[in-house]
Amino acid sequence: FGPSNWGALNSNCNGLYQSPIDLVTNRTLVVRQKRPLRLEGLSMRPWQMDVENEGGSAAFFPEYRASERPRLSGGPFKTDYLFQQFHYHLGSEHTFEGKRYAAEAHFVFFNSLYETF
After folding, report:
1. d(CA 47, CA 35)
2. Domains by residue range for the chain, with CATH
3. Per the database record, which ranges form the Alpha-carbonic anhydrase domain (predicted)?
């Protein structure tokens, strides 16, 4: 039962914008933003890093002092998003121009309106 059959299990999974997705350059919608998208604090070193074994991959949870946590802001976002963790998939989850790659990384952020992820 792969992604093409998920709709048979639950009608909520029948949408056009389901994951995984194929990123296709000539079908990409360009959206002009009045504010640039900013990613700040990447040069800050975490004071600790927890690593979780997830079977075929690992998740990395850096610990930062509150004022040093990397953040994503601007662009379409009304609030800042704070960096939580990153993990990878061996064998890409998504495709680019129909092609799968050996690995894919996900960088996870959460809305700063909330205390934690």
Report:
1. 32
2. 3-111 (3.10.200.10)
3. 1-117
Q: Ramachandran region of residue 13, left (φ > 0), alpha (ψ -120 to 50) or beta? A: alpha
| Per-residue pLDDT tens over the stretch 74-88 | 998 999 999 999 999
Q: Cα separation of 56 and 87, whole Å?
A: 11
- φ and ψ at 15, to 5 degrees? -70, 170
Structure tokens, 78: 């009304």
Write the DSSP symbol of residue 12. G
Question: 39-58 in b/e burial notation, b at 16+ Cβ within 10 A?
Answer: eeeeeeebeeeeeeeeeebe
Q: Which residues pair with 57 in a beta bridge?
A: none
Structure tokens at 5: 């059959």
Residue 96's nearest CA partner among 17, 20, 14 is 20
Nearest C-alpha neighbor of 31 from the set 97, 78, 75: 75
